[in-house]
Every structure is written in structure tokens, then in C-alpha cells.
Amino acid sequence: MTTARRNLETLADRLAAYDRLVEVGIGRRTELAATLVEAGAAVTATDIGRREVPDGVGFVVDDVVEPDLAVYEGAEAIYARNLPPELHRPTLEVAEHVGADFLFTTLGGDQPAVPVERQTVREGTVYVAREFDGETREDGRSYQGPRE
User: Could you count the other beta carbons within 10 Å of the beta carbon of residue 113?
Assistant: First the structure.
């Protein structure tokens, strides 16, 4: 199994606890969203330009810097792969506004630009910037967040 495939499986395992997710900046890397949908999650992908996504994955053109917050409402988690540092704070602000966990990876040696909990996974690090573990959200829903 390739490192890329192990990394994908690691991220999918980490995000599998969530029923409703939004991926920020899907780009051409659609396999994680597809894997999550196959596992039964509802996934909406965003990007600043139109992208093709797999069947079952919703798509909305949105810029997280000037977001349409309705896209993110009801999400339990917002996640991103290889998120550039300039998008860490805007994405965290969206997650905080809608009461969602925010999990992301960075590209190469980029360090998180927001306070995070580092979680080592099989093939790298997932940064968790917002996590409601067992708390009640503003909308009254309560959930346990991701499994360890």
C-alpha cells in the first residue's frame, strides 16, 4: 500500500465519527470525500471555483475567507487537506461560528497559524483547532466528537 493511500485511510478513520462534514478546498483530491460518503457520512465540498466531485458528495462554490455561512451550518466537522496557513484563521472562525470541529493537515513544513492540538496518526499529523467533545452545541445538539 502506498503512503498516499495509507494517509487517506488514516484521515478517513479520523473523520469517520462525524455524520455531517464540510471539506474546504477540495481541489482535485476528491477521494477522501468519496471514502467518507461511502462510509455513510454526508459530505459537502467547497472550493473557490467549480470542481467535479464524486457521486454523493455535495459541492458549493465558496471562499472560506468570505464564506456563505449557510454552507457550513449543521456540520459537525469542517476539514481540509494541505490547508495553506493563510486559510487557517478564516476556517477556524467559520467552524467556531457554526459550532463545528475543525481538523486539517498542512502541506510540507507549514506550521499551523492557529492554536491546535496535534494528533499523530499513522502517516503524519492531523491538527484539531476546534473540538466539542461531549459538549452541547449552541443549536442544542450534543455529540461526542471524534473517536480516538
Answer: 16
Extract the C-alpha cell encoding 13: 478513520
| Residues making up the chain, counted from first to last | 148
Question: Which three cell numbers, joined as nine digits, stand for 48?
Answer: 473557490
**What is d(CA 89, CA 112) in angstroms, rounded to the nearest whole number?**
9
Written as nine digits, the cell of 59 is 459541492
Distance CA 64, CA 46 (A): 9
Max distance between CA atoms of the chain, in angstroms, equals 42
Contact 124, 6 (CB under 8 A): no
CB 21 within 8 A of CB 15: yes
DSSP 135: P
Backbone angles phi, psi at 95, to 5 degrees: -60, -45
Q: Which three cell numbers stand for residue 17?
A: 465519527
Strands 124-130 and 117-121: antiparallel
Per-residue pLDDT tens over the stretch 60-106 = 999 999 999 999 999 999 999 999 999 999 999 999 999 999 999 88
